[in-house]
Amino acid sequence: MTKKVSATGKRVWKTPDGHSPIAILFNSIYPVPKEAIDLIDEQTFPVQVARGKFLVKPGDTEPHLYLVLKGVIRAYIKEDGKEITTWINEENEIVTSIRNLGLTISSPEYLQAIENSSLIAMPYALVEHLYEHFLEANIVGRKILEDNYRGAEERAYICRIASAEKKYQHFIKTRPGLANRISLKYIASYLNMTIETLSRVRSRLAE
Amino acid sequence: MTKKVSATGKRVWKTPDGHSPIAILFNSIYPVPKEAIDLIDEQTFPVQVARGKFLVKPGDTEPHLYLVLKGVIRAYIKEDGKEITTWINEENEIVTSIRNLGLTISSPEYLQAIENSSLIAMPYALVEHLYEHFLEANIVGRKILEDNYRGAEERAYICRIASAEKKYQHFIKTRPGLANRISLKYIASYLNMTIETLSRVRSRLAE
Questions:
Q1: How many CB atoms sit inside 10 A of residue B153's CB?
Q2: What interface predicted TM-score (ipTM) does this complex get?
Q3: Minimal CA–CA distance to A61: which of A99, A105, A103, A102?
Q4: FRET label pair with B1: which of A2, A104, A129, B104, CA 20 to 30 Å apart?
Q5: How far are the Cα atoms of A4, A76, A122 from residue B97, in angstroms, in the given order?
Q6: Distance (Å, rounded) from C-alpha A154 to C-alpha A190?
Q7: Distance CA B139, CA B144 (A)
Q8: Does B102 touch chain A (CB under 8 A)?
Q9: Tens-place pLDDT, residues B152-182
Q10: How confident is the model at residue A207 (pLDDT cuts 50, 70, 90)?
Q11: Among residues 163-182 of chain B, which lie with CB inside 8 Å of chain A?
């Protein structure tokens, strides 16, 4: 967690007028009442995760929603000792142990930083409080969910493309930022193919 | 579309007090204002799709959201002439060309009835109208999305399980209703394996 403090004593992760980046994001999606903004400003906080370290592990009890300010977060589930990468997200995306959105059961997902990452954390209890007390928060939530839903559909689809070459081409088309940013082993895991297959596909496409 | 008319002249797909099943469902998720209920009652309509026929095809321009009253709907995308099954849903589930939720681009998905199916259709324009004019509709939408989001995450996950046996076991655990209901070819397509592999897995598990 950052301890950096600005000249005015405010943590520098906030905007010059003292707002949390999550408050700014929510308000840009749909205008949120001032009382809701105040709660977000008070209860969200910055988190730093070094490359390779974990943001969330299975069994973590207090769920949070995170806005990625910098870095890349990968989610995976362990199945027979093997890691199954379920998603990879970059800057300006909202990440969470989303498999259980709206439920209180614990998630089997690991959320790992694959670059040094800065995020803003929002307790999920606050999300639920906002949903309950500010109807507008449901517009924001609904729109973020629509967006993330398309992402999940995309992950379900890319995995089902039979040809490794088509799969990789689809990946570089839909996630151009990641293709040149993250290491091959994560791309291979996300695309559900071996590193050898991925390397072969890449050399063939480079020809 | 059903033409069946009850003694009172109302189409029998409505409840005894004249409501659309979609209005009943929405109102059970979160109380919706009467004016919203009235709009849903007026603008939703029943659809019947025979086994093998299509509810939606790529290029269909007016998007709808559908509540499945009876039957099973499968979504697939054609890739190099091969069908990639993206989801399969049964009774009481909401289906739509959901890949584009919140966007206006056309979907590459085919929605096919794999049993004779009865659905209630709701124009997506009405969904958007409700979101805009009734804040409560956003609570309903947000909750339905949370639910469907978990489904999409599940589809992205099951596809990435390496062992065919584990994959099938996960399927019968999470979708017990479908396992004994739909034909093997659809299960195989959904699980991204050949029918031969699926048959082998099933015989091995039956031993």
A1: 26
A2: 0.85
A3: A105
A4: B104
A5: 47, 28, 32
A6: 12
A7: 9
A8: yes
A9: 888 988 988 989 999 999 999 999 999 989 9
A10: confident
A11: 163, 166
On chain B, the residues whose CB falls within 8 A of the CB of A148 are 149
Report which of A59, A70, A72 is spatially closest to residue A113, judged by C-alpha positions: A72
Distance CA A81, CA A60 (A): 20
The encoded tokens of residue B62 equal 């007016």
Give residue-wise pLDDT tens across range A145-203.
998 888 888 898 898 898 999 999 999 999 999 988 999 999 999 999 999 999 999 99
Q: Which residue in B45, B37, B43, B55 sits closest to B120, CA to CA?
A: B45
Q: Distance from A206 to chain B by nearest Cα, in Å?
A: 22
- Give tens-digit pLDDT for B97-116: 656 555 556 678 899 999 99
Q: Judge whether A83 is closer than 8 Å to chain B, CB to CB.
A: no
Written as one letter, the residue type at B154 is E
C-alpha distance from A150 to closest chain B C-alpha (Å): 5
- In terms of Cβ atoms closer than 10 Å to its own Cβ (0-12, 13-18, 19+), residue A178 is middle
The residue ranges of DSSP E strands in B39-116, in sequence order, are 45-49, 54-56, 64-70, 73-79, 82-89, 94-96, 109-113
Contact B111, B75 (CB under 8 A): yes
Out of B84, B98, B146, the one facing A161 most closely (by C-beta) is: B84
> Alpha-carbon distance A184 to A206, whole Å?
15
Q: Say how many C-beta atoms besides its own lie within 10 A of residue A99's C-beta.
A: 22
